[in-house]
Structure formats: C-alpha cells, structure tokens
Amino acid sequence: MRGAVIGVALLLAVCAVAVADAPALPDLVWRRAWTLPAAVPAESAGLWTPTTAVSDVALALPGERGTVSLLDPHTGTLRRSVAADPASPAPITGLWVASGTLVVARGSAQAPVQALSAYDVATGARLWRRTVIVAQQPETRVYGGPRIMVTGHSIVIVGIEAEPVIVFAVDLRSGTTIAQASGERGCVMQGAATARSILLLSHCPAKGHVALSAVDPRTLRRVWTRSLRSHDTPGDMPLDLTAGTDGYAHVTVGNDNVFTDADGRLLPVPGAATGWSRPLYVGSYPAIGPNGELELHSRWPLPAFLIAVDLRAGRLTGLPLDVPAQEANLIGVTRDMAFVHRTQEGAEAIIVYRRYPGRATPAAVLGGVAPAAWPDACSLLSGDDLRILGDDYRAIPSARALGPAKLPRPAACDWVSTAGGGPAVSLSLDWVSATSTEARALFAAEVAQEKSRSSFDPGTDSAQVFSFVTSHPAGIVGMTLVGVGPVVVRMTSVSRQALHLLAPVLRDNLRARYRQPLAPSPPMRGGWNRPTYAVLPIELVVSRGTVYAGADDMIHALAAASGRPRWSYRLGSDVAAAPVVSGGVVYVAVSDGRVVALDASTGRARWSRRLGAQGDLVVAAGRVHVNAGDSAIAALDAADGRTLWRFQAGGALRVPTSVSSGVVYSGSDHGTVYAVDARTGRARWRSRIAGRSDPMTVVAADGLVHAGSESGVVHALDAATGAPRWRARLGSLAFGPLVIGGTIYAGGLGTTYALDASTGRRLWTFSAPGDRLYNVTAPTVARGLAYLGGPDGKLHALEATSGRERWNRSAEAGNGITVVDGTVYTGGDGDSLLALDAATGAIRWSAPIGGEIGREPVVSGGLVYVGSSNGIVYAIPLRP
Question: What is the bridge-based pairing of β-strands 143-144 and 188-193?
C-alpha cells in the first residue's frame, strides 16, 4: 500500500528560529549508537503482529526455542532472558513491551488460537497466561491490520472477522477481559496502536463515509471521530494507516493522503506545536511525481531516511541514515532512538540510531552537506568524453530536490545522441556524503545489496566501480555505480557496452575533481574474460583454438588462448540454439526461422536460408538437418544451403531430431515416431506408439530408437523397422530419454529413472525433495558416476549401476554440468563457477563470474570456458 502514488503536493517547509547573539545550533541528525548482529523474523503473516518489541525500558527479541531476550535499549547489553512456556511450545508470533510489561503471543500465524503470556520486564516473572481466538484473513476482508494490538493500558484483540467485527480488550497486568465491542456493519476497517489509544480507519461505502477514530483501549469506546474526505469515487478504496507511539498518524484513503495529530486534527494545526513527530517508518525520501503527486518509494537518493511528519507543514520529512534504502526496515522507536533492521549479504543486524537535537535545515536533510556542495551532474562527463560513443551527444540536465533542500545545480543528466543513432546514457548523483569514508561505506553497502539480487561483472568489482544488470521500466538495463571521494554516481543505459567504455572515464574525472588516488582492482588469476553485453544465455562452442559465442543476436569469435576478438556477426534476431562448427563453417539457427552459415575463420556469411527452423541443428555427411517448423524435417546442403529434401509429417514434430546410421529420427506431438532416409528424405517407417496428444522425444543408439512421452512411458523400437521391442511406464517425464553406456536415463521434476537400454528393466530410481525446479538436470555420466541437479538445490553424485548416492553438495547445477578428468564443473552459490572433486564432492576451487552460468561449461586446452548471465565469457585456468 505504501508504494501507491498519493495525489498530494509535497511541501516541506522548515523554519529555524535564530536567537540574536546565540551560538548557532548544529544540524539535526541521527547517528549510530550501537549495532547488534541479529536475525529478526518477519512480521507474522496472517496476524500482522510484530516479532520484535521496542520501548524506553527494553528491546525484546525472540530467542531459540521460544525464549525471549530483553536488552537494554541504550547499550544493547542483555538484561535477562525469559524462558519458553512449556505449556505452549509453539513458535512466537508476536512481541510487545508496554508499561513495564512484556507480552508474548505463541501459536501458528495461520491458526486462530493464540496463547498470550505477560511478564514483568523488571523481574522476568510471568504475570498471567491465557488463550485467545484471533481473526484470520478471509477472502473478503472486513478488517485489515494487526489482530493483536498493545497499548500502555491494555491488549486489544480482533476476535471475529465477520460482520460485525468483534473486538475485546484484556487488562495488561492481569489478563482479564475488561471490555468488548463490535464494529459497524457494512464498513471496512484498519487498526493501529499508539501508546495511549487504538486508531481505527473506517470506510462505509453505502454511506460514502470515511472516518478516523480513536478508541479508549480500556473501555473500547470512541474518544473522538474525524470525518475524512476523499477525491476518489465511493466504492472499494484502498486504506492504509501508519501510526507512531506518540499518536501522530499517516492516513491513506484511495489516492488521498493526510496527517493527523494525537487528537485527530488534520495537520498543520494553526498555533499548535512545531517540530517533527517520532519516525513512522524507514524508506526512500518522499518525491514529487511528474504530475505533482507524492511518491513514497522513489529510488533516489541512495540512503534510507527516517520518515516523520513535519508538524508545522503537515507533510512528510526525514533525515538520512548511513545504509541504502532498499535494505532497511524500522522495527521501533523511543523518545530519542530508532531501531532499524538491516540485511546485507545474508547477514542481519539491528542498528540503533540516536537523535541529536539541532536545526532542521536543508543541510540536515542532506546529511549535513550544504546543497552547494553537490556538483553539476552534467559536468562529470564532457562532450569529448562521449566521443567514444559518437560525435553528436549533448547533455540534458535535470533538477532535483529533497524537500527544503533545493539543489542549485542539476543532480541528474541524460546524454543523448542528437542523430538518434547512439544509446542514451543517464547519470545521477545518488548521494554526496559529508566525508569520503561515509561515501565508501554507503557505496560498499549498495554494491553488496546488488550482488545479492543482480548479475554483475566481477571485472569491474573494485572499491570504486561496480557494474551490474537489473530490471527497469525500460526493460533489462545495465547500471554502473562509481564511488570516488564523497560522491556516489549511478550510470544507466540499455547499452552495457556504453557503460563499459564510460565507467573508467567517469572514475578518472571524479578522481581528478576530488584528488583521490586510484583504488586497486582485484588481481586477475590468469585466463581472461570478454564482455558480449548479452541478456540471453550465452551458447559456447570451442573448436580449433577459437571460442564461438552466441549472445543475443550476435555470434562472436574469440581467440581461445587470449580472448582477443577475431570477428563478430550480427544476425538480426536472437540465436536460437548453440552454434554447430563443422568443416570450417559455423552453422546457426536463428529465432526468426533462418539457418545461417558463417565462415569460421573470417565470420563472412556463406549463405542464409529462411525455412521456419526451430531448435538444434544436426550436421552430418555434408547435410544440415533441421526441424522446419511446419510439421516438416528439412535437409540443407552444408556447402551452399540448398534444400536437398523436405519431409512432411502428419503433425508437429519435436526437437531435437536424432541422426544415426544414415537415418533421421524424430518424435512428434501426436504420439508418432518417424524414421526418414537422411540421403533422400523418404520415409523408412513411422510408428504410432502413443495418443494423439502425447509428445514424444527420441534418441537412437545401438540399433534401437528410444522414445519417451511426457505422460511417462519409454518405448524401444527397432531402428531398422520401427517394430516395438519393449515399453516401460515411469512417472511424468521432464527430460530424456538419454542413452549412456547401455543405460537409459529419464526423469521428472525430482525423480530420475535408470533403465536397461536393451530390455527396459528398471535398474534404479532416485528422488530428491524440493521445489527448486530450475535446478533439475538430466544426468551427466563419467567414470561410473551419474551427476545430476535436484529440486533440493543440490548436485547429487550417484553410482551409475545402482543409483546409490555417493555424495551431494549445494550447487546451482540447473544450467549445466561438465565432468572432465575427475573434476565436476557447475554453477556455485553466490554467482560462481564451482570445480569439485568428482569422487568426493570436495571443492577444489571456486571462481566468481558475477551471475549464473548460462550453459554447460566447456573444458579445452587447460581452460574452462563459461558464459555468465551477466553477458561475459570467462576463460578460467583449470588450476587457478
């Protein structure tokens, strides 16, 4: 809800009162007080209850096996532990601290029955325990918000979420029920707790009425009610209510946004108190949208802000923290402290900030940096710098502001080609810190966050430059972060090559501006890497000292030893399958249905034919065999691309086809297997072995054609006549059949079957649990072991004869497994290439590649070649 765009103007006016001859106060600021490594559970789904609690006297955290740790909020030291409740061993679903009392809810977040216990914070003694029934979220929600709310006087529980909503109150110190009430029929409500009351936001569509009410938590009687106006039409309007412990609230009704004080008055209130409320949440600084609307989740600037309400202006404001906005969440506040949960590189921590009083100046909103210290974004690169992309680039500046901090110079700049021929490059000042040390820490935190969620280029992973690929409204784009001196700059472009060229230029310009030394890059350990700037997985073939990489709509030829480019060819449409290199020619299936033949030495096109080609190409005996798309198999002359023959089937065919002993075999989507003479294109035989809607995949080996259907049956046919030899019923198949060493391997999503290829007798079955279906692979067999990826996120090594597991290890194996000379190469956790001992699974080495492996690694000439999802081809020594 908080990501919605709220149609109000954002006006942040701050007023500093100067006292004659008095020393100037420093700027208002939040600074770190202490940090505690701690895993903080998420808010209980279904109950919307907090699983950590903050107050002026204690910070409560859930411990192991149902215990609760009470910490000093000022220092983080452990005061005492509250033991688990043996009568209620269920997990903790909620924690609260109020008026010297710890309240703990235990149960299942998806179950209505919850066990509530209260403890004295000073002694840890239990005060009472009782069971309550709380509402669960139905398909049509009548009440939204926490099911259990705790104030300084009582516990308020939403007991039944049907019309009318039933609410009851429990005394905080005794646990007895002290009041009960019901909601109004035909109304939708949201609730939130403050220190002294319960706020209810209600919308009654039939009456066209929206109101905010305060309820006495001891009697459940309304203390006050304020009608709210909405510019939206009556009906199902989204509601959102965020309240601070001090009673100030942020209310969203449809696209309207209002702020109220503890008495429900709309802010600003003439003659009322000035200053700021306690922080309501941590997030991006509220921004003005293109139509004057308020956007609560802008991605600029980089730091997280503690967002509060400016009481004098009646608008949101905030002060920056020293962590990126995308990795911080507010878990609680006291009078002068804020408790923030942060996750970085899988490690969780609670960071506690202390508020230091001062003036709410524009510099305060900028973290103590004067607006004049922000440089002109368009001055960080020049027209001469952009000439590496083209001669016709011009800068288009964009002004930006953070509430009262009006930056005198543009903080963003778009470099565009006036002729429209070159890629646009956007440059944004993400932040200017008070010191270089602060900027380095912020840069490092953002880099760590992007590494956890994006494909990146390890070659640019330095202390000052980091490039990665991310999703954007414009599609998949490249981004580069550059951090030098006190600034962090972000460049964005659909052309990753443009960023690759401009990043060192921008870095050096910033070094000259801020007189910063060059930060050392991580040393290379031999081998090489070469960017292709591709988005789609890279298909690699290594042949006669050259690496051929199919990347998006390009074929790149690179020297296998050095990575030096030999040639590139633009196809006009994406590569549809791995290139095939044969007889000095590179054959490529293109996604627009063409087959293209390129000279392997020069990259010159020899011929191109459009025939609806789909899937892999099979080159044999001077012919290129291809599924022609319209229920046909075609054979092209490998030398000139002439169509030698075309066989029309009775329905759609499956790819890939299999060529063996002068015969082309193909499965189909209609239960029929076809055998076609590879020289003439005439049918040798056809055999219907399954239903008309049962797709078949085939492979020929050792005089048999093995066909596997998606319904889970494997057939063996005589390769010469098509006569049935045997059939075996398995589970549903997602891969195979695959014939290796007299054994057929086939499998579903999590189960692999091994059959005797000559008789169909089942040799063994292996199953792995899990839901990571992207990690499932067909087996790769070497030296008596079968290696396969399972849905449990592991690589499994099985004895090929018995299926007995030898070892398993966590690995991202789904995109390919290669086994050479006793080493297994596959994808590793953390965007790496993993080399494992084939016999034991022990890690021999791991190399960062900045993304997932695109396809099976290729081993040749003492190097292992792999394409990464970050668009880079890597050549890594076998013993780095």
Answer: parallel
Helix %, strand %, coil % of the chain (to 5): 5, 50, 45
Asked if 282 contacts 306 with a C-beta cutoff of 8 angstroms, the reply is yes
pLDDT of residue 291: 62
Return the closest-CA partner of residue 664 out of 646, 651, 652, 690.
646
CA distance 110 to 79: 32
Q: How far apart are the first and last CA of the chain?
A: 50
What pLDDT score was predicted for residue 137? 56
Q: Which residue has the tokens 């003005």?
A: 288
Q: Yes or no: say if 809 and 837 are a contact pair by the CB < 8 Å rule.
A: no
Backbone angles phi, psi at 129, to 5 degrees: -150, 135
Two tokens at 616? 């892999």
Give the torsion through C-alpha atoms of 368, 369, 372, 376, to 10 deg.
-150
Question: pLDDT tier at 649 (50, 70, 90 boundaries)?
Answer: confident
Q: Could you identify the residue written with the tokens 């086939």?
A: 746
Confidence of residue 28 (pLDDT cuts 50, 70, 90): confident
- Cβ atoms < 10 Å from Cβ of 512: 10
Q: How far apart are CA 253 and CA 19, in angstroms?
A: 41
Contacts of 621 (CB under 8 A, 6+ apart): 662, 678, 679
Q: How far is CA 494 from CA 412, 570, 620, in A?
A: 17, 18, 40
Q: Output the pLDDT for position 14.
A: 29
Number of C-beta neighbours around residue 102 at 10 A: 25
Nearest to 403 by CA among 11, 15, 9: 11
Looking at the DSSP assignment, which residues form a beta bridge with residue 709? 696
DSSP one-letter string for 291-351: TS-EES----SSEEEEEEEETTTTEEEEEEEEEEGGGEEEEEE-SSEEEEEEEETTEEEEE
pLDDT digits (tens, 9 = 90+) for 459-501: 666 778 998 888 766 677 889 999 999 999 999 998 888 898 8
139's CB contacts (< 8 A; 6+ apart) are: none
**Would you give the distance in Å from CA 513 to the centre of its chain?**
35
Position 522 confidence tier, pLDDT thresholds 50, 70, 90: very low
Please report, for residues 165, 319, 404, 515, the alpha-carbon distance to residue 311 in angstroms, rounded to integers and kept in the order given.
34, 15, 15, 42
Q: Answer for the pair 101, 120: CB distance below 8 angstroms, yes or no.
A: yes
Q: What's the CA angle centered on 380, arms 375 and 381, to 5 degrees?
A: 155
- Tokens 């009351």 correspond to 197
pLDDT digits (tens, 9 = 90+) for 835-850: 999 999 999 998 888 7
| Residues 345-350, mean pLDDT to the nearest whole number | 78
CA distance 227 to 398: 40
pTM over cut 0.70: no
Q: Quickly tell me which residue has 């990126």 as its tokens.
A: 324
**CA-wise closest residue to 687 among 713, 716, 711:** 716
The count of other CB atoms within 10 Å of the CB of residue 307 is 24
Query: Is 80 exceeded by the pLDDT of residue 237?
Result: no
749, 771 contact by CB (below 8 A) = no
Rounded to a whole number of angstroms, the CA Rg of the chain reads 33
DSSP 779-827: -EEETTEEEEE-TTSEEEEEETTT--EEEEEE-EEEEEEEEETTEEEEE
H or E element that contains 436 = helix 436-453
Residue 847 DSSP code = E
Q: Up-side HSE of residue 291: CA atoms within 13 Å toward CB?
A: 4
What is the predicted pLDDT for the residue at 538?
75
Q: Is the dihedral of CA 739, 740, 744, 748 positive or negative?
A: negative
